[in-house]
Write a structure and sequence with these properties.
binds benzoic acid; Rossmann fold; 39% helix
Length: 259
């Protein structure tokens, strides 16, 4: 991976289009319900916040909407453009648009940004009055088994636990309160447990989503700690045939900007 192919997000997470497609295609594949909640209409101007490689954006474009994707990773912006998507590089906390959108859509992105109020303020700033903010991300209890195993291994080795779960996984009540304070009326918000089969096992998940954590571990104990985490998780997340399923919990919401 070269510097131009990878990008570091606010969480220190790096994204590279090829490995993301291999290990995390399910992120777009399982998002049909949140696209249904968006109900994109022909001619609507929709911003896809964190469009990734654009796989999901295409399903919104198929409705006839005019979509712009925004994404911090140059590698993923390039992958989205290769699909013919109008994608620009940028940060959800400071959306670089002066015109207004009919809707902002987001899938599997907001748990990576701890400054939730900044995102909400930035989204409100690019919507027309009455415009929709519809999305899904990790909610309270998301990947709890994985987080506990990471924490247990860190504790056992006397390591700093603060980087184990650098995620924003709010309850519906907390996120609804933030949306309301940010000028939105919440139309629906719910937690949805969604056990998620992992196509490349827990190894692929850890490589894709927790790489910075492992890279920061001491060289001499990295392999051992990773093995301990996988051994802790196997009885809970791996079935008798070796298939891994992660304990995802989605927070799905639909809101509109008060007029
Ligand atoms: C999620 O999509 O819920 C997620 C993915 C990676 C790390 C944390 C959460």
């Amino acid at each position: 991976m070269t510097a131009s192919q990878a990008s570091t997000s606010a969480s220190g997470q790096q994204w590279e289009a090829e490995s993301y497609a291999r290990n995390a295609r399910f992120v777009a594949d399982l998002a049909a319900p949140v696209v249904e909640l968006l109900k994109p209409r022909p001619g609507e101007r929709i911003l896809d916040l964190g469009c990734g490689d654009g796989a999901l954006s295409l399903t919104i474009i198929a409705s006839g909407a005019e979509l712009t994707g925004i994404e911090p990773s140059p590698s993923l912006v390039a992958a989205a453009r290769a699909r013919g998507i109008h994608a620009v590089r940028g940060d959800g906390r400071a959306l670089p648009f002066s015109h207004s959108f009919d809707a902002v859509f987001t899938n599997a992105v907001l748990h990576w940004i701890l400054q939730a109020d900044e995102v909400i303020r930035s989204v409100a700033g690019v919507l027309r009055p009455g415009g929709r903010f519809v999305g899904e991300f990790g909610g309270h209890g998301n990947v709890a088994a994985i987080v506990v195993a990471l924490r247990a291994a860190a504790r056992r080795h006397g390591l700093d636990e603060s980087e184990v779960s650098p995620f924003f996984f709010p309850t519906p009540a907390e996120y609804a309160e933030r949306l309301t304070r940010g000028g939105f009326e919440v139309d629906s918000i719910e937690l949805i447990p969604r056990p998620t089969p992992l196509p490349t096992s827990i190894e692929g998940w850890l490589d894709t989503f927790r790489a910075p954590y492992f890279l920061a571990l001491p060289d001499e104990s990295r392999t051992l700690i990773r093995r301990e985490i996988i051994d802790l998780l196997a009885p809970t997340l791996c079935d008798s045939q070796g298939n891994w399923t992660a304990d995802y919990v989605r927070l799905r919401f639909s809101a509109h900007l008060r007029e």
